[in-house]
What does this fold into?
Amino acid sequence: AETPVRAVIDLDVTGPVISRHLYGHFAEHLGRCIYDGFFVGDRADVPTEGGVRLDVVEALRALDIPNLRWPGGCFADEYHWHDGIGAVESRPTMVNSNWGDVIEDNSFGTHEFMALCEMLDAEPYISANVGSGTVREAGEWIEYLTRSDDSPMARLRRANGRDDPWKVRFWGLGNEPWGCGGRFGPKAYAQVARTFGTYSRDHNGNRLYRIASGASNDDYVWTETLMQELGFEIGTGNSAGPSVGAYDAISFHFYTIPGTWAHKGSATEFDTAEYYRTLAEAARIETLLAAHSAIMDAYDPGKTIGLVLDEWGTWFDVEPGTNPGFLYQQNTLRDAIVAGVHFDAFHRHADRMSMANIAQTVNVLQAMILTDGPEMVLTPTYHVFEMNKGHHDATSHSVDLLDPIPSIVSGERTVPSLSTSASSRDGRALISVTNAHATEWASLQFDLRGAEVAGATGRILTAPSLQAHNTADDPHAVSPHAFQDVHLEAGTLQVRIPAHSFVTIQLDLA
Ligand code: AHR
It folds into this structure.
């Protein structure tokens, strides 16, 4: 048997709280995410409410999804919200030039999205149009959403059937402004973000959390410029009352792509070398989070400004025969391993990270849910989100490794074969472990200190092959099972984990 990797977890030493918003979601008007994913109108073959699929809602409610980002993505910077309100028959159409050049009929608009959030019990995260919209348009949108008195936009909302204002906290200032969001340079965008942030007002006690759009991957200049241009003295009152600064958080995007942009690789057909390339790419998340955070620390040591990763996940070639502009891909055990590694990194950076959003929730990129007509399939990634639910709003604990983690060699890079993190909440602790190795088992021995542990129960997500995935014919090919190889004795927890597995261990604290 393998030599165990020893680790210490001090359950009485508390790290930062892991915001549940690190488990956030993203739904764009892209391919079959909104239309034919969430929103199917009055199709008769699935139960719906207000056009929204209830099986999808139920599955996402089981994840306790904390927030949903909408309407994009690149789509956000061409979206004019006025086109998506009022009688559906009279809403104008538009071209979705980013995604398939298809006609968007605007039948899913503000009211439909807010109703979806209410059904999901998730907070809305709305991205305002900075690229092709106006400051006035963004300002009026938030007035429409959140104003309670007789203001012009509140009156319009009422005329469209909604009396009460909604609560909207998360407010994005555009998307990828260096690319599809307007081809800005960092300084020009920072100034525009300040303007949009200023005129997106807080109405009637609705306090916006304004998120400036940030870097792609390792564009650290972008992050640094946004910090320099924040426009207020950090630590002087951004957290209460009317906003002082123009934005409260800075985002960045990072996708795991094993190949090149033109040939990303198949979602289901890959060999071990390609799997390890995927893993080496995914492992970059740790470096990126550390580096963006370090830049922010230099300007904001008190960590007032949040770091938001509002798009992350795997990006492969589309499934053969599907529209290349729709970004539809299958989801295998490899995707679950990528998700496990990301969440451990998020937990380690919970002091700075205030939100993360997987791209995207249904039928697009690293989805939770794939639909096909009336069928609905939960992906391996879905199960990682579900198994990790115990980390939502839990207190993180560092996992101090006493032995080196065995590494995997991928080309010129070495990648750790194991990843782990821990947290506790309400008398329970949760340890997550990913054994990313394609062929070898891993053993871990945790020395649990600082609390009495009365019991330990494990769950495992694995399958005979890394390429395993769920389909309508075989929906449970990759699904969680009870995991017995968990032994607790006198505060020492021993676990032996098969190759390519994601495991969670729940500890009952006495
Ligand atoms: O998630 C798909 C696209 O990826 C988004 O629209 C864009 O922001 C990013 O480039």
In short: The mean pLDDT is 95. Residues 83 and 91 are 6 Å apart (CA to CA). The radius of gyration is 23 Å. The longest strand covers residues 306-314.
